[in-house]
Amino acid sequence: MTERAIATEQCCIAIVGGGSAGLALAAEARRLGAKNVVVLEREQSAGGVPRHCGHYPFGLREYGRLMKGPDYARRNVAAACAVGVDLRTGATVSRLLPGGGLEVVQDGYAYTVRAERVVLCTGVREASRAQRMISGDRPSGIVTTGALQGMVYLAGQAPFRRPIILGSELVSYSAIQTCAHLGIRPVAMVEEEPNTLAPGQLQLYLRLRGVPLHTGVSDLAIRGKGRVEAVSFTDMTGQRLAIETDGVIISGRFLPESALLRASHLEVDPLSGGPVTDQHGRCSDPAFFAAGNLLRPAETSGFCWREGRRAAAHVVADLARPRDMDRHTVAIRAEDPAIGFVSPQRVVIGRESSASGPLHVGLALPLNGVLQATSAGRVLWSGAGKARPVRRVHLPLDKILAARPEADIVVSRVEVR
Amino acid sequence: MSDHGRSPGGAPFDVAIIGAGVVGCAIARRLTLDGARVVVLEKARDVLDGASKGNSAILHTGFDAPPGSLEQACVASGYAEYLNIAPALNLPILKSGAMVLAWTTEQLAALPGLIGKAHRNGVPDVAPLERDEILRREPNLSRDVLGGFEVPGEYLIDPWTTAHAYILQALANGASLRRGAEVLGGHRGKEIWTLNTSTGDVHAHYVINCAGLYGDVVDRRLLGRSTFKIRPRKGQFVVFDKPASALASAILLPVPSKTTKGIVVCRTIFGNLLVGPTAEDQDDREDASTDRATLEALRGQGIKMLPGLADCEITATYAGLRPACEFPEYQVMQEDGYVTVGAIRSTGLSAALGIARHVAEMIGPLGTPLTEPVIPLVDRLSEHHPRDWQCDGHDGIVCHCELVTRREIERVLTGPMPPASLQGLKRRTRVTMGRCQGFYCLPELARITTGRLEVPMDVPTGMSEGKDHD
Ligand SMILES: Cc1cc2nc3c(=O)[nH]c(=O)nc-3n(C[C@H](O)[C@H](O)[C@H](O)COP(=O)(O)OP(=O)(O)OC[C@H]3O[C@@H](n4cnc5c(N)ncnc54)[C@H](O)[C@@H]3O)c2cc1C
Ligand SMILES: Cc1cc2nc3c(=O)[nH]c(=O)nc-3n(C[C@H](O)[C@H](O)[C@H](O)COP(=O)(O)OP(=O)(O)OC[C@H]3O[C@@H](n4cnc5c(N)ncnc54)[C@H](O)[C@@H]3O)c2cc1C
After folding, report:
1. Which segments within B303-363 are labelled E, that is strand?
2. Plot region of B341 (φ>0 → left; ψ -120 to 50 → alpha; else → beta)
């Protein structure tokens, strides 16, 4: 190792991650007058996940045009560069330092960035086969949708010819499209939940594509010596099935890419997997904010883009203020087995309290009923909520805050008899 | 093959070693350094494809081995030699120490006996620990612990780089390695063995059977009989992401039972924390599958010992197969230019160098020891030492979770023993071994390795062939 004095740079806003949220945030912050805005992106090209989503629909609301993911990613990059964002690719942030510091490794060299505000926009990834504890052998040919998309659209390669898809979220349907791009057809879609997690109408698409669906399966196992040979499971009728296949697409079950966060001084919410923030995305260290899917799994690109824009306004306004925590915050938490997490986990209350985004309620179980937000026994808001497990519902945080909570806010279902 | 099954000079090899697990690799190194002309025959496409593929990676002192056994002797001498050569070979050691913990009153009662045994095994620094002292040293440990003792000399090492360094040193000093060469049969005539392999015949004065999970099969193929029968014992593991490694400092060992060392919780040299292994007897010699119920139970056991694990992400799950047999001891024996090194069950990583010395003594000198052997450089993949990504000019990070650089990957791909598949590249560099398991870096790896792996990552689909990608 060569010992060198590590250079330190100063900037106004440093953004970690140049995906949909980070790029939109950077461009908007510049537009609102922030002087130097740096985006640090570890991949060789910025744009985030959409870079390898070679399908529609992206960008309709943002740019008034229907685009495929890669075009949308390029558009976001161009928009940021056009307003003078300092976009650095091949730049890995390796550590977060208290008070707004970042350790960066770029092109094989290390340096430190000191920013007045840092925004974390590192996005989500899919849970791996290991994290989902899927039984069986470990042959080659098992990839997540994201890795498949990257292999196909970024490297021009295919890891298999007749894969099986584990999962039934929207992204599982993207996997079918990625396969179609290769001229191959998945041999089946398999889901452990009793119903598909994506909207039921999409099952029509499966029929159109000729992809058989098995839901409510149990005892799933991957078999194969060198390559994947079969996936076996017990179906809803109790019958043991084995489907011959040469690959497995592990799809969905998004998790925030929180590695930096978990290795840092910032508070992590073990339930959402993202940082603990207030409604403006501020983390437990007031110099740090977060935006985009890092906050919680997982919204669309357009949602993250808009979230980035909204966060920019707040971060830029915050630059003018002393860097300390807003004092009047209360916690938001769920008290209901159907609810897996809430985001944000705390809110600033009081005179200037406002919210521009929703309260995310991530579901552990299917939900079909009335939800309420209460504070010290007082109902702040209630309304109907219906969604599949693993999905989420959005509650109107502005309305909840307008009811002036003074103590912790509790989200739960209203008991129905 | 240009050498026609003989050593470069045209004469038969002095020694043919069957199997490139950690034991075969260590023996190849020892005998090469002692001056023998060695060929290693490995049936798999790459080295370390058997029992040595997945273990707990603990460098054992042998404190709990049966006193007076060959296993105890080899672990003790292997341990000592490892500490000696590790700095020169650039092999990392995480000097964590271990604690044996009692969770029930029966286990508590067993501790004095185990401490006595450790002392008889020549591990004098094993000493009892009060419950309060244990909790002071390991503040994240469950309060349910009742007592224990420390084994300060148990360390954590890199299970793959260790064996790679052994075989690479053998190769750098003149040994040959044939991968994809399964020994199918053979015979001994006029002091020379002829081994029939799947890639042609090989001639050697001595044959050393280090076939691990197939030790008995190879004995039968070459001697017509075997005095032991391998009964693989599977061990499953759950590996937690790096933040979990802050929860434990020492290797946390349970009170061992007759058949197994029990479930261990320990850090890894790569900065993770693992829980395992199970001990599941089976007939199949290849089936290293994992199953959800067992993995969930392991996770639960981990949480019981370290409650903080409940909030930690899982990085990986895997299983290894111990080459166990019906006897509780290594099966090492010699006859007519043939040595069996069998049933190196659960301590082979620690004992390999000791076993190698033992075998070298058994067969006696075969040449003049090398005075200045070449020491090839291997990359240190340890979380606790500077890594390539922290050194200037590495040409960018490819695997973001394990921070593997393009330079490290290129070094391995163009090195003396390039990997045959992504599996081999993983073991040599740690790519895709981290929390995302390839979500981010598989595309770039596919690009880098195009045309460079015997088992490509890309499967031709017809459609994509000849297509223009940019
Ligand atoms: C496989 C997959 C498919 C998806 N498909 C769709 C789809 O079809 N349509 C849709 O609308 N949404 C889709 N999504 C949701 C997706 O998360 C959003 O579209 C959007 O990309 C989220 O934006 P983001 O900025 O939060 O994160 P991302 O777009 O993921 O951007 C995060 C960026 O941070 C960078 N980064 C991470 N860590 C570091 C670090 N330490 N240093 C420097 N840079 C770092 C990453 O390289 C990445 O570029 C998909 C998600 C996944 C995982
Ligand atoms: C779960 C588990 C945990 C463990 N933990 C530890 C630990 O913490 N510390 C420790 O010291 N030890 C540990 N061990 C033990 C250690 O891993 C083994 O003792 C060691 O790997 C055995 O190595 P080997 O070289 O004898 O066998 P193998 O690694 O199986 O090598 C044999 C080789 O021979 C090849 N082969 C077989 N047949 C033929 C043929 N006919 N022709 C050519 N080649 C052939 C195989 O392909 C294989 O590569 C553990 C083991 C397991 C399974």
Report:
1. 314-322, 331-335, 338-342
2. beta
Asked whether the predicted pLDDT for residue B206 surpasses 50, the reply is yes
Residue B1 near residue B178, CB atoms below 8 Å: yes
- Provide the chain B residues 223-242 that lie in CB contact (below 8 A) with chain A: 239, 241-242
Tokens of B396: 């960018």
Question: Mean pLDDT lowest for which of A122-126, B131-135, B256-260?
Answer: B256-260
* pLDDT tier, A322 (very low <50, low <70, confident <90, very high otherwise): confident
The predicted pLDDT at position B259 comes to 67
Alpha-carbon span B403 to A405, nearest angstrom: 45
The DSSP result for A129-168, as a single string, is TTTTT-EE---B-EEEHHHHHIIIIIS---S-SSEEEE--
Per-residue pLDDT, B450: 96
Q: Which of B365, B430, B422, B397 is nearest to B92 (CA)?
A: B430
- Cβ(B187)–Cβ(B201) below 8 Å: no
The span from the CA of B26 to the CA of A309, in Å, is 59
Contact B360, B14 (CB under 8 A): no
Tokens read off for B210? 């280090």
Digit-coded pLDDT (tens) for A91-116: 999 999 999 999 999 988 999 999 99
Contact, B332 vs B356, CB < 8 A?
no
**Does residue A387 belong to the interface with chain B, where contact is any CB pair within 8 Å?**
no
Give the residue among B399, B438, B244, B299 at the shortest CA–CA distance from A262.
Answer: B244
Size of interface A-B (CB pairs under 8 A): 164
Angle of helix B348-363 versus helix B22-33 axis, rounded to 10: 40
pLDDT (tens digit per residue) in B405-454? 999 999 999 999 999 999 999 999 999 999 999 999 999 999 999 999 99
A155–chain B Cβ distance below 8 A for any pair: yes
- Closest-lying ligand to the alpha carbon of B236? 2
Q: How far apart are CA A13 and CA B64, in angstroms?
A: 57
pTM (2 decimals)? 0.96
* Of residues B248, B231, B261, the one with CA closest to residue B61: B261
pLDDT at B191 over 60: yes
SS3 B349: helix
CB atoms within 10 A of CB A19: 31
Instruction: Give percent of chain B above pLDDT 70.
Output: 97
Residue B461 corresponds to which amino acid? T
Kindly give, in sequence order, each residue whose CB lies less than 8 Å from that of residue B380, ignoring residues fewer than 6 positions away: B90, B91, B92, B161, B386, B387
Report ipTM for this prediction.
0.95
Torsion angle of the four alpha carbons A337, A340, A342, A346, in this order, in degrees rounded to the nearest 10: 70
H/E element, B264: strand B264-267
Question: Distance from the CA of B183 to the center of ligand 2, in angstroms?
Answer: 17
Burial of A412 (0-12, 13-18, 19+ CB in 10 A): middle
- The reply to whether B454 touches chain A by the CB within 8 Å rule is no
Name the B residues in 380-409 with CB < 8 Å from any A CB. Answer: 386, 389-397, 400-401, 403, 405, 407
DSSP element (H, E) containing B101: strand B98-102
DSSP code, position A174: H
Residue with tokens 């090195």: B415
Amino acid at the residue B219: D
Query: Is residue A12 very low, low, confident or very high in pLDDT (cuts 50, 70, 90)?
Result: very high
**Which residues lie below 8 Å from residue B92, measured CB to CB, with a gap of 6+?**
B86, B157, B158, B161, B269, B380, B381, B382, B384, B385
* pLDDT score at B2: 43
DSSP B51: G
Question: At what angle are helices B70-89 and B348-363 packed, to 10 degrees?
Answer: 100
